[in-house]
Amino acid sequence: MKLLLVEDELALAEALCSVFSKENYITDHCDNGTDGLNNALTGIYDAVVLDVMLPGMNGFEILREMRKNKISTPVIMLTAKSQLEDKIYGLDSGADDYLTKPFETGELLARIRAATRRKGEVTSNTLSFGDLELRQKSGEIFCTATTQAVRLGSKEFQLLEFLMKNQKQIVTKEQLIERVWGYNDESEYNNVEVYISFVRKKLTFVGSTVKIKAVRGMGYSLEESV
Asked: Would the pTM count as exceeding 0.70?
């Protein structure tokens, strides 16, 4: 899952990014409202964790612009304000949930899972294709035919997750760069090829019949070999 965190308290942002990484989420962080809005409007995220008080523009303004531009990404708002009026205003502006600082990270993770389930983005902790299972909690791939498993690195996991969520489509290199390395990342195309190679080796290691097929001039897709 790919998250956008818009939070100007750097210590809190660093702590949350670390927590999200342990959950195998890839996170883009913005420390001001202008950059946060620009990233949110791309629509590439599964959820946005959005602070209210931000330099540039506040979280309510970002949220209104997202909904005005038909970006339906789930938004969990963070704020030091606990007044009922602020919560009502945030929810009426299009927020999916609202969490008052200070909060427990476990509660934030639960709210993210709940918000993405309501959007239908995440319905299970396991993605499946052919004899292959991608286990989101452990970060492993598991072959049901051989019962072999191996843990994936963070970018390997995000790459295969995106392919499995789009298993009936051809995924372009541009899409993979945006999804795995980040919208503003300047990763070269060969980074994708390197990590595709890593994942292929691990698919072979567990004995899966699932292959990552290169579609010349277009991108990659998953297929089962017979």
From this structure: no
